[in-house]
Amino acid sequence: MEDLLIVHGGGPTAVINGSLYGAVTEAKKLLKKGRILAARNGTGGLLKEDLI
User: Which residues, at least 6 apart from 44, have a Cβ–Cβ distance to it below 8 Å?
Assistant: First the structure.
């Protein structure tokens, strides 16, 4: 895996924050040189290519 794009939607809840934390933690273990990117504001950010 080279890069990972995370698209996350919904309000900030403990469950959503926990799942996002888990995804980023596992990605850090698997990515050797790649980047972890996120779409700002979920699907809307993805459609606008607003990535961070």
Answer: 50
